[in-house]
Each structure stands twice: as C-alpha cells, then as structure tokens.
Amino acid sequence: MTEINTSASVALSGLDTVDWSALTHAYGPAEDVPGLLLARCSEDPEERAAALDALYGNIFHQGSRYPATAVAVPFLARMAADPALPGRAEHLELLAALAIGYDEAHLPGGVAVADWRADAEKVRAQDPEAIRAEYDAWVEAATDEKDRRLRALRRDMYDHDRQQEAMAAELGAYDAVRGELPALLPLLRDHEAAVRAGAAYLLAWFPEAAGESLPCLVPLLDEEREPVVLATLLVTAGLLGDGEPSTGLTVRIRKFLDAEDPVVRWAAATALARLGGEGVEAAVSAEAAVSAEVLAELVATAEEPGSDAPRVLFHEGDLRGYSAASLTLLADRFPAQALDAVTDGLAATSGPASFPVATAALRLAFGEPGPDGPGAFTELTEPQRRLVRVLADLDRATWQWANLWGIVRSWGLPTPRDALRAYAGLPEA
Questions:
Q1: Which residues is 25 bridged to in the sheet?
Q2: Is 243 inside a domain boundary?
C-alpha cells in the first residue's frame, strides 16, 4: 500500500474536485493525473520517480502541452513550495518544462513572450480557407517534383483547429505557471541548494514578471555561496535584465568574471553576453576589455567545457551548447574568434550534443538560414570551408540523426554526409 506524506492533503487540496476525465493529455482523458500527483508525495522514492516519468510523458509529451497541463500546475507549485514534501526541486524543473517546453528553443535570448502571444493571436484571427489557398499556391510554386511532394505533405498535415488548440494549451500552461510565481519566490532562500537553483531557473522564463522577481533575485548574487546556485542566479539575471545603464545590473554581474569557480565565471559571461557584454557607464576601452573577458570565458567553454563541470539546469547542463549559442551574440564584435571557437567545439562533439553547436556555427559562418545555400565550396572563405569540412567529418553515428540533416539543410548545404563530403572535395569515408 502506498504511504503518502501527511502534508500532501494541503498541497493536493481540491484534486478530487477536478473533472480529470473531461481533460486530455497525450494519451487521451487525463484520469491518471491525480494518481500520479498523489504518487509524487509517496514515501517510496521509486514510486515518486515512476510518477515523474509518467507526468513528463503525458502532460508534457516530447515538449507538447495539453488541456490537462495547466490544471496540474497549481498542485505541482504547492508541492514544490511545501518543505515537508519530497521532490521539490524536481517539481520546479517540471514546472519550467510545462511553461516553455525545451529551454534551448529560447536560448540565448530568453522567452520572447510578446512575440509568442502575438503569434497565437494571429493564428486565432486567420481564416482556414485562406491558409489553405496559401498552401496550395506554395505547392504550385515548387521548383521540382521532389520539392512539390514535400510541400504537399506539409500542406496536408496542417490542421488549423489543432494548431489553435496546441497554442492555447502552451500559453495556458505558461500563464498558469506564471500565476504561481509569487508563491514560489521565497524558495530563492530555501535551505536546500537544489530548490534554490530550481526556483532561480524557473524565474528565468518570465520576463513579464521581471519587475517582481529581479528585486528578489539580484541581492542574492552577493549572498549565495553555492557555486551552481550562484551560476543559476547569474544566468537568470542576464535573461531577465534589459542591459540599460539605469539598472546597474551589468556592473553587478561583471565582477563575477573574476570568480574563483569556473562555473560562476561562465555564468557571468553568459549573462553579460545576453545583456550586451559591456560595463555600461565604463569608458570605451574598459567596455572592450569586459567584452574580451566575456569572449574568453565563452570560447574556453565552447572549446572544452570540462568533464567535471557541475551541472546547471540551463540547456540540460550542456555548457558547450549554451556557450556556442551565446557566442552568436558577440558575432558583431568578434566574428572570427567566435566562429573559430564554435567550430573547434563542434569538432569535439558527437550525437545530439552536436546539434546546438552546429546551429550556432552555421549561423556564425553564414548568417540566418536560407534555402539557396552559400554557393560553390571554392567561393567560401577559409573559416566557412573549415566549418563545412568539420561538419562533413562528424562520425556516421552522428549523421544518422535526422536532426543534423535538417540543420545542415536549413543553410542550403547538401545532405547526407557523403554529399556534403563531395561538396567539400573530401574523399568518400
């Protein structure tokens, strides 16, 4: 028989008043959700772990959110806020996932929530018949039969009502989590380091609430002694700040570039890259020096993050991938250095870890993606040619992932691996 923590009755108050059978998740009616939430309060660690896996699979299925997702949020938030309940840090991570999906889609700039809301409103205002006509015209404009079939497939897969429902569920979950932030802000000072880090990480995704969260968060930069928690606070401050001189935020963050702990220095550089990497009221020469320090930290991590680097929550702990993305923010000031560092990092990656690094490298080398491609290999600059050769030299196991094919194709380069090697004049592997 499952033994449930006695505090669960408060956190899960009202659970039985929800008509879960009328709500849906990835597998249909959400009747299993209350039992899973109850199991998350179990005294048995294995039962809690199984319930967490199930919640990631049904109310957050491969990044998708559903009508049941937003309804589960208040219960998870109360469970995270109750110090007598287990798994609080895990609940905070789950809440962040329910709010934004996979965070790498929002990095390095942060959640562009105004654009998100505008896109949802645009979809709501669209006429499905007009959209279908646009798709038909797009299919007719295909340049060859293969392209025509691919376009027709995308047209036939489009479902206006389903897209509206999906966007409503995503924004509904986001706003449900945002509504719980006031009750979760005190967790920034929790006695558990993992809970403090989880709370700081969660706040990073709500720029509309920065006016309430930053005043609570920024003073902790001088108080927090746990490196991973401090690093999380720094990155969050960078994502929520606006970089304006009046805030003085960059001044407070820049001193951490001299921190003893490498993860703290990395976090300060990441935050400053997001804010602009400059020292605001400092002289031009000092600003350049700060920018160079930011570059140096991000370059070092992009090239070799270190196997013993502590795990931060951002970008699933992939410091190389996050650093590569952050270096794209410095491309206007340090184009050659940024591209060289990310290309070096890409050469040292394999499998899914290569995806964000390849994306950053291609953006640094060729700008924003486009279907026309960069032209003949001989017309490329040497840094561009080097990147293409590194991509073509990634092992076959990495090239088995359709994700990498899609990334490379986005910049108009040939796939599969053998085609890219031929384009670069490399011998068959």
A1: 28
A2: no
CA–CA dist 16, 360 (Å, integer): 47
Reported as a single tens digit per residue, the pLDDT across 16-25 is 999 999 999 9
> Partners of 64 in the beta sheet?
61
Range of the domain at 362: 331-429
Whether the per-residue pLDDT at 263 is higher than 80: the answer is yes
Q: Where are the alpha helices (DSSP H) in 185-283?
A: 193-203, 210-217, 227-240, 249-254, 262-275
Residue 402 belongs to some domain of the structure: yes
Q: How many CA atoms lie within 13 A of 162 on its CB side?
A: 4
CA distances from 191 to 48, 59, 194, 195 (A): 22, 29, 9, 8
Cβ(108)–Cβ(328) below 8 Å: yes
CA distances for 111 relative to 197, 222, 236, 299, angstroms: 19, 26, 12, 24
Q: How many domains does the chain have?
A: 1
pLDDT tens digits for range 380-421 = 999 999 999 999 999 999 999 999 999 999 999 999 999 999
Cα–Cα distance, 33 to 10 (Å, whole number):
17
Quote the CA–CA distance of 213 and 201 in Å, as a whole number.
Answer: 12
Position 370 in a domain: yes
**How many C-beta atoms lie closer than 10 Å to residue 137's C-beta?**
9
For 334, phi and psi rounded to 5 degrees?
A: -135, 60
